[in-house]
Specification:
By secondary structure, this protein is an alpha+beta fold. It has two helices and six strands. Helices cover about 20% and strands about 30% of the residues. It starts with a helix and ends with a helix.
């Protein structure tokens, strides 16, 4: 059984996403889904790039964030609201935004569960 970025990318591809592995300038591995169409919420229909920071032991853990690249951006850093959303710089570059998120992850999670939780983030954005 594999773990880490390879497992995450394989599971996302099995869900029929177009996924590539990208390494940030500071050496962090990401699974980047592009294109990613937002299905729910006020951004429904928008096409973005979605970056998921890989953990070395996925599916036992996931990183507590999503990284969003959109033109125009969905939210800017100034749109952060305490206890609602925290938008900051992304290690993927200046055209990306880091959205902090707690996934309440359990060790038996899957990429399907992760995407479901991401859909919920956009539903409530």
């Amino acid at each position: 059984m594999t773990f880490g970025s390879e497992r995450l990318i394989d599971e996302l591809k099995n869900l029929e996403f177009e996924v590539t592995k990208q390494v940030s300038p500071n050496g962090i591995e990401f699974a980047v889904i592009a294109p990613y169409e937002i299905e729910l919420g006020k951004f429904a229909g928008r096409i973005i790039e979605l970056g998921l920071q890989c953990t070395p032991d996925f599916p036992r853990s996931v990183h507590s964030s999503i990284h969003v690249k959109a033109d125009p951006q969905l939210y800017e850093k100034s749109d952060s609201m305490p206890k609602v959303r925290n938008i900051t710089d992304s290690s993927l570059g200046t055209e990306w935004r880091y959205w902090s998120q707690n996934f309440n992850w359990t060790a038996d999670g899957t990429a399907r569960r992760l995407i479901s939780q991401i859909n919920n983030i956009f539903l409530n954005a």
